[in-house]
Fold this sequence. Notes:
Blueprint: H1 2-20, E1 23-27, E2 33-34, E3 48-52, E4 55-56, E5 61-64, E6 71-76, E7 86-95, E8 104-110, E9 116-119, E10 127-134, E11 146-153, E12 170-173, E13 183-190, E14 193-198, E15 209-214, E16 224-230, E17 237-250, H2 251-258, H3 263-290, H4 292-306, H5 310-352, H6 372-417, H7 423-449, H8 460-489
Antiparallel strand pairs: 1-17, 2-17, 3-6, 4-5, 5-17, 6-16, 7-13, 7-17, 8-10, 8-16, 10-11, 11-12, 13-14, 14-15
Helix pairs in contact: 3-4, 5-6, 6-7, 6-8
Amino acid sequence: MTTLTVVAAWAFLVVLVTAQDPMHRKFEYKHSFRAPNLAQRDGSIPFWMITGDAIASGEQLRLAPSMRSRKGIAWNKRAMTESEHFEIDMSFKVTGQGRIGADGLALWYTAQQGTLGPVFGSNDYWTGMGLMFDSFDNDGQKNNPFVALMINDGTRSYDHQTDGSQQMLSGCQRDFRNKPFPVRVKVSYYKNVLTVLMHDGMTAQPRYELCIRAENIFLPRNGYFGISAATGGLADDHDVTDFSVYSLFAEQRQQAAQQQMPQEEKQKYDQEFEKQMQDFESQRQKFKEAHPDKAKDDEEEDFAKYFEDATARELRLIYESQTAIHQVMQQMETKLREISQQQNTHTSMLQQGGGHVPQQGGAPPAQGALMQHEKNEMLQSLRDLTASIRDMKNYVNEIFTRSYNIEQKLNQGGAGGAVQQDPSVKAYLESIQNDLRQLKSQQQVGGNKSVCDNIPCLSSTLFMVICALQSAVILAFVYFRSKSDKAKFY
Ligand SMILES: [Ca+2]
Ligand SMILES: [Ca+2]
């Protein structure tokens, strides 16, 4: 019921103030930060300094973590020079496991930038405003969490033992810990009236209630905004998710600001602009007459360059990417053509004959994966090899048969002629026969397999050498034999 009354009173007040003097707000980004993208990658916040245990991330500025005896502060590096009247809209979360937490969080507007100290993480004896969100009940009045406003002129020390109850200007008891949504607080300082509105953190959309209203407040001009938090024996996480500062202006002043440029001066500037435009146009016309082609080109180019709207840009991007794709496709086509040409070359080489492929019995050298045409090439060469081996085999057989016949004839001649055959010549002949048999069997094996699996295999050169040797021996033997026959007949 009391809450309702307060809200109604505040609404009435706002209406009253608004009716008297319409107010304008302007967001001041150099004094503000907001989640997401609250901090930069290096953990800094533009225009803000962060020290102590405070850590900034994209989502929040954690002034003090839920660990014992921590303190952290963040202070705006830029003085509030835009306006002497301002509004701060801050969202924060104080969360902890315990039913009771400590110590609390404070919002500052001071003549100098703050430093680490004993008052909720910040220095004592400050000059300006301190709005404390005091979690822990030091004086045992069972009135915490409490929101307290204390104005200091730099001479007074904050008394923790009494929760500053004797020093505070005004305050209200509000439970701001462990709420489902960030608690929002709106502090406005306008024409020496300071008001603090608070949201309970139970809804996503803020519903503000009046906490403090104080008149005849004189805050330092060009002061600095700051926030701080500290933990003690008990510890909460103290996070700020939004700190937005607005400068406040009366409507009259804003209008005055807009109309600062005198009418005469404005007209003068307009005339000057008009004159320059005319000059430029006449120059352009002259140039166009002198160089009709160039002028046309320039005009078109200029339009393309300077008047590219969103659609044109999109079209250009699409065209560029399509051109890129086209180029890639052309490259691929060229590659394919090359491959096709290579294939044709290989095929023609194959058709021209396996005569060029290695005739040695060894397997062709393995070079990684084999292409189809290489396989065909190999098969063809193997076929050729098989054919030549078959020829060799026939040749060897023929030689064998002939030498056998010669031997038979010799044996018959020896028996008829009653001449003692030379035993050394006979042994030599037998060894040749053995060699030939061996060779024959080897050739048969080779012929069946078609391929010489194991090297050494009979090479054509070796074969020819053996044939030549045998022929020479046979000729020598025949010659020797005919000589002895002759001798006998005489
Ligand atoms: Ca306290
Ligand atoms: Ca207390």
